[in-house]
Fold:
Amino acid sequence: MKLHDLLQHLHLLVPYQGTNPEITSIENDNRKVQKGSLFICIKGYTVDGHDFAESAVKDGAAVVLAERALPLSVPVIIVNDTTRAMAVLADAFYHHPTKKLHLIGITGTNGKTTTSHLIEKIFSDVDRSTGLIGTMYTKIGDQKFETKNTTPESLVLQKGFKQMLDAGVDTAIMEVSSHALHMGRVHGCDYDIAVFTNLTQDHLDYHKTMEDYMHAKSLLFSQLGNTFDASKPKFAILNADDSASDLYRKSTAAHCYTYGIDNNADFHARNIHMTSAGTSFEIVIKEKSYSINIQLIGKFSVYNVLASIATAFVSGIPMDKIIESIESVQGVDGRFELVNAGQNFTVIVDYAHTPDSLENVLKTIKSFADKEIFVIVGCGGDRDKTKRPLMAEIACKYATNPIFTSDNPRSEDPLTILKDMEKGVLGQSYITIPDRKEAILTAINQASAGDVILIAGKGHETYQIIGSNVYDFDDRMVAREAIEGR
Structure:
């Protein structure tokens, strides 16, 4: 694309009148620059892209977009906010890919990953070609790619959407984090459906207050747009049992539908029955009832399924196809995932890393556990410190054998994190084992027939971050090896 054609999307107050080179790519990482690239200088938390502009030019950048004048041998186009400009340019450079996709965004504290995978499964089973972007990976058709953030920055996103279109994808499902919404990473995404799972305490190291956190999530619903088009309707799918939905309903002009268990909802679950093998319930949609039997356990799983059913239903997928697909799902990696190596006790690995998600999982375990409940839990370093004592309190409340250990301590001293946790359970019974592998081994070696062990916090992750180092660590593999070594 020619530079002049690209820049017209920025609507600069003073139009650019310089040379008009062919732009071969847009980059904000100088290491990826090639001949003909437009290099965008982004101010990050630790580095400033302006400091790498000269290096980018040496590597072939034809143009630099910056927030201040730079002494370079190529044109420097100055804008007030390069991050916002990057979203506009990325969308234009890749020819507005989300306008050609059925785009579903899912936000909330817990349940985003499971809900996105359930939705993806339903659409795939009716022969829709799907793409998925989230915490675990980016998936385009049958190919999976590693992701660094739950929601990538705008440049990576738009390039990914273009790759989806090139691969024949027609439906994209993505997790949308509060960070991404607040930072504007999803600017330019033309969502058709926005889904809200729930809102509980998390990320207060970034948002500071629950009100700010709640408002950040509302941006997804306001970004559904303010117009109506019968041929391309917009929908907000809201949790009727979460009070934050009141704000999100007011934040959007889109058609709003609710799902829930405790309160009246458009997609309402009733007569819920849970066993250690799965959950059955009825879903009522406008007085019509359907029986559903899922291989997932817990009230939180019912919420995820309801959100998925509502999303697929408003997308025009027949209810019989939705139910058939949902009932075939056996689970999602690292979400209430069983580790079975022939032992006579239960081992569950779950991503629960917030007070609410840990409580939900432990409540579910308590509903079917007959004997001891072990929970191995820690808290991430350089993250919300206020939830640490809460996590410990919940572990002691619902488990008979709480074990506090390290999660991803990052730059913090693991012992400091554990002391923060212990402040919430003074005088209560628990043990502390800083080494996560040793904590898992201890629980498994102590477990007897009929006991349940929950290894919480990391789920699907295959690494542990200690200091600046990233080590191979998979709770599921460590648990399996410990069981086999008994």
